[in-house]
Design a protein that fits this description.
- With 271 residues, this protein is α/β, with parallel strands linked by helices.
- It is built from 11 helices and 7 strands.
- The strands form 2 sheets. A 5-stranded parallel β-sheet has the order 2-1-3-5-7. It has a two-stranded antiparallel sheet with strand order 4-6.
- The chain starts with 18 loop residues before the first helix and ends with a helix.
Length: 271
């Protein structure tokens, strides 16, 4: 075997389906590409930046998980303060309707691949707030969730165990729920519009990103994205207007009145 094309490639298929194409990935013709894919997955699983959106009481478990006793940084997980550089979005506790808007906006600002972890029972089924009109009950109805860590509240050991499971899923290629947001964007958008109103919009071009990642499918667009185009309007910058001329005149008249008052006071003092 003197050429790369002569190297045999083993492909396991089930029921005549191509497992590579089922994941939405183009079939590789170069056998060495699989080696680099495995290396990339390993490096990605060992270098995770975590954006913790502290929505509720579950956030109190993160400081001990990060600090010296449990020290999640030794596993390659460290906090990040901006969504642009973050890989993991931690939603810790109950999610109010107002806060959910910010969570969706933060999630759409993160670059792909991205992963969502719901901490506490409130993100699973509403928890103790399951009857509240002001909270969202199931987080995965509005964005794809890769992992739930149930409990009220889960201990740092449970948080660490959940993050290690996520690392293993990333390494094996199973953590691909971020693709579902692009492939079924119309369904997620419909749930968001049902909760926030028909005029709900974010500045992110999710459909454009789906086309860029070649993940656009029948579920990407539909009646809800058509409704979005109907109500969507370009974001306008906030403008401030100052009337400089009138301000100067007002200041001049104020200064003149103050000078007249001072002159009168001086005359009275002289008398």
């Amino acid at each position: 075997m003197t050429e790369i094309k002569d190297i045999p490639v083993k492909v396991e298929a089930d029921s005549g389906k191509d497992p590579v194409s089922d994941l939405g990935i183009k079939k590789r013709t170069n056998p060495l590409a699989n080696v680099f894919d495995e290396l990339i997955k390993f490096c990605r699983s060992r270098s995770l930046f975590m954006l913790h959106y502290c929505t509720g009481c579950g956030a109190i478990e993160l400081p001990p998980a990060m600090t010296s006793r449990f020290d999640m940084e030794r596993l390659g997980i460290q906090p990040m303060v901006t969504p642009r550089q973050a890989d993991i979005l931690l939603v810790t506790g109950y999610v109010s309707v107002k806060t959910l808007k910010r969570i969706i906006l933060t999630y759409e600002q993160m670059s792909s691949p991205k992963y969502v972890v719901g901490i506490c029972s409130c993100t699973v089924n509403g928890g103790m707030y399951w009857q509240s009109y002001a909270t969202a009950k199931k987080l995965d109805e509005y964005m794809p969730v890769d992992l739930y860590i149930a409990g009220c509240m889960p201990r740092p050991e449970a948080v660490m165990e959940g993050l290690k499971k996520l690392m293993n899923d990333i390494k094996s290629g199973k953590a691909s729920n971020w693709k579902d947001y692009y492939q079924n964007y119309d369904r997620y958008l419909g749930n968001q519009q049902h909760l926030f109103g028909d005029n709900w919009q974010t500045p992110s071009d999710v459909i454009g990103e789906a086309n860029n990642y070649e993940l656009a499918g029948p579920g990407t667009t539909g009646e809800h994205t058509a409704r979005l185009e109907e109500y969507q309007r370009p974001l306008e910058p906030i403008t401030s207007h100052f009337r400089i001329g009138e301000t100067v005149k007002e200041n001049d008249s104020t200064n003149n009145n103050n000078n007249d008052t001072n002159n009168n006071n001086d005359k009275k003092g002289g008398e």
